[in-house]
Amino acid sequence: MKVTVDASLCQGHNRCYALAPDLFQLDDAGFASAVGDGTVPPGQEDAAELAADNCPEMAVTIHA
Length: 64
Description:
- The protein has helices at 15-19, 45-54; strands spanning 2-5, 24-26, 32-34, 60-63.
- Strand 2 and strand 3 (32-34) form a beta hairpin.
- The chain has 2 helices and 4 strands.
- This is Ferredoxin.
- GO terms for molecular function: 3 iron, 4 sulfur cluster binding; metal ion binding.
- Keywords: 3Fe-4S, Electron transport, Iron, Iron-sulfur, Metal-binding, Transport.
């Protein structure tokens, strides 16, 4: 499983980072991106899904 953040949709609400700080990072302007290549480590799947479900801009996508 991988997560991605669509930079064109992200508005910097940072809910993904608040819910799954091991999976997301913030740039200097407060916009999110996936850590590394976006691979979700075992045991973090629920956090990834929670982050995607709580993104108000639907910028976080999960790829199986």
